[in-house]
Amino acid sequence: MARRSxxxxxxxxxxxxxxxxxxxxxxxxxxxxxxxxxxxxxxAASWTGFYMLRDxxxxxxxxxxxxxxxxxxxxxxxxxxxxxxxxxxxxxxxHAFPGHIACDSSSRSEIVVPHVGESGEVIGVLDIDSHxxxxxxxxxxxxxxxxxxxxxxx
Length: 154
Known about the structure:
By secondary structure, the chain is α+β, with helices and mostly antiparallel strands. It contains 4 helices and 6 strands. Strand 5 (109-116) and strand 6 form a beta hairpin. Helix 1 (6-21) runs parallel beside helix 4. It is globular and about 40 Å long. 36% of the residues are buried.
């Protein structure tokens, strides 16, 4: 029996999340369900969650893992880089990323995917950290973009 590709596993997670969240229009509940599934199924994940923009500030939202930074300094770190660039950011070694914000000192790598609202503006990010270096690649990026796009209704 052939193993499913990583992207196929992401598609299956997206479909599972979609089935669960179709029962509500509440965005917080939808993000919470996505985080729970992703954190449980992504073996490399040590922290999985959303940071949301509120009044120009990037604040922690739904997450699983160790206690997070509550507010991220504007335009610094990986989450803000994804917002400012309006595209996902994969960081194989967070210690080599200029301005990295170390909410968890044992974090070694990270992937961040922008979350876009109905107006087309970035409203937050999906952020996943790992205690392993180089834990994320382009298949993870593509798979997580599928999940975020589904949450956005695309």
